[in-house]
Specification:
This protein has five helices and 21 strands. By secondary structure, it is of the alpha+beta class. The two termini are about 25 Å apart. Bound molecules: uridine-diphosphate-2(N-acetylglucosaminyl) butyric acid.
Length: about 350
């Protein structure tokens, strides 16, 4: 039995049949047999019970800087003309450690994603995003190895099919890929992305200052998984039609909604949960966070079924109040592998 309590940020005591730490791509040469799950930081998963298979833990390291590119995208021989740099990173590197290292080297672009827990290899899978930046926009290529056949492939940004908290890696038939490296194309000049509330009225002189502000914003609202077990936003923000938004606005003038290019609107799941009176609730050892209702927290010693029960309760309350179905953003795993929301 392989203890997963140190490998899931919900801090649940769950076990896998076996576990293997992958430190270099060659560690995948020994083929996997039977059901398996790949874990990075375990910060976006909920184990609903023990897993009857093998867990592969991505700890592939390394941050390779270069080459530098000119504004046309060609390798730049003249340092002063360089506008971007390619950075190839091992899938097991922690995203926040990467961001800190990049800033030390004068490399920008990822600072809005500061303090997001988890690894670089996990980030493209759900196209992590925060404060107006999605990681997929800065990814040039993703290298992955099929855990059964050992075949190595490289996908371009376009082939990754990045969307809101989605990518090809979540699609059926692509789940046997283990992400070994991610290559980013990043700006050398600071181009602040400050459209998001909380960043708008600020002036930042460099990426380090913006990073500091994002860290402060996250610390204000989100529980640190080091101290309080959680997996970040539990549900995705739902998309609705303009008519639905108009109906909601008639009742709640202040409803936060974000227009999309296709005419639909993104609503804030946290706001819906809050309005359904589910912010800061506690059911036994599980609750929702008082400062951000979208985060489900383990208050200490919670059991997987208690987390599931609270998530089901919250979604039922939102459905009763708004006739909207919330869908988890975290990935759910049961005895035999990944489960859909309807299966738990
Ligand atoms: N709100 C409430 N009550 C709450 C929570 C939120 O009224 O309890 C309102 C806020 O006042 C705000 C709106 O809802 O008007 C949106 O809330 P917030 O700005 O906190 O962001 P979010 O939409 O809840 C998303 C991501 C987060 C990311 C933040 C910041 C999703 C599912 N979540 O949250 O990502 O950090 O934006 O960019 O897209 C994660 O994926 O795990 C995650 C934490």
């Amino acid at each position: 039995m392989f203890d997963l309590s140190a490998y899931n940020t919900f801090n649940l005591t769950v076990y896998a049949q076996s576990g293997r730490v992958i430190a270099v791509p060659e560690d995948l040469e020994q083929p996997v047999s039977g059901p398996f799950i790949i874990l990075g930081g375990g910060s976006d998963v909920l184990f609903t019970e023990d897993f009857a298979g093998t867990v592969l833990i991505n700890r592939i390291g390394g941050i390779e800087l270069g080459p530098k590119l000119d504004p046309e995208g060609h390798p730049s021989s003249d340092e002063s003309q360089a506008s971007h740099i390619m950075v190839r990173v091992g899938g097991g590197v922690l995203l926040d450690e990467l961001i800190a290292t990049l800033i030390e080297h004068g490399i920008c672009g990822l600072e809005n994603l500061s303090l997001i827990p988890g690894t670089v290899g996990a980030a493209p899978i759900q196209n992590v995003g925060a404060y107006g930046v999605e990681i997929g926009d800065l990814i040039a290529t993703v290298e992955a190895r099929d855990v059964f056949s050992g075949k190595q492939i490289t996908l371009t940004q376009e082939q990754c099919r990045f969307g809101y908290r989605s990518s090809i890696f979540k699609e059926q038939g692509w789940s046997t890929l283990f992400i070994t490296h991610v290559t980013f194309k990043l700006p050398l000049n600071f181009e602040p992305r400050v459209n998001y509330a909380g960043l708008q009225s600020c002036e930042f002189k460099n990426a380090a200052a913006l990073r500091e502000r994002v860290i402060a914003l996250r610390n204000e609202k989100l529980p640190n998984p080091k101290y309080v077990g959680n997996a970040g936003s539990f549900f995705k923000n739902p998309y609705v039609s303009a008519e639905r938004v108009a109906e909601l606005k008639a009742q709640y003038q202040e409803v936060p909604c974000y227009p999309q290019s296709n005419g639909s609107y993104k609503l804030a799941a946290g706001w819906l949960i809050d309005k359904a009176n589910c912010r800061g609730i506690k059911h036994g050892q599980v609750g929702t966070w008082g400062k951000q209702a979208l985060v489900i927290v383990n208050l200490g010693g919670a059991k997987p079924h208690e987390v599931v029960a609270l998530a089901k309760y919250v979604s039922a309350e939102v459905r009763n109040k708004f006739a909207l179905d919330l869908v988890p953003e975290v990935r759910l795993y049961g005895k035999h592998g990944e489960l859909s929301w309807d299966q738990i």
